[in-house]
Amino acid sequence: MVFHPDFDTSNAQQTAVNPLLKYLQHQSPEVLARVAKSVSPDIREIISHNVQGLVGVLPSENFNVEITTDRENLAGLLASAMMTGYFLRQMEQRMHLEENLASTSSIQQNSPKDK
What we know:
Layout: H1 12-17, H2 19-25, H3 29-37, H4 41-55, H5 71-110
Helix pairs in contact: 4-5
């Protein structure tokens, strides 16, 4: 998924009120692409399942699927996916930290003690 920073150019007043949107619009496409690529495949899969669950899933080979929504619902979906991504990334980092601490602890327990 790539965020297009100019998707909301029609409402300048709303942009001024929404600091996150303003921040995202001032990021270069390269920065946004780099952030999107830094997410692990596990997180991408969870977010994909989450979004599919929200909009519904029909097999594209048997159906001509078209989804129509308004700006508010699309913004809510984007916000939900972003928050899910941030949460999952933090939990993934915590899991790796706990694994590293556990392996460090086991190394210390198995090393000979100084007398």
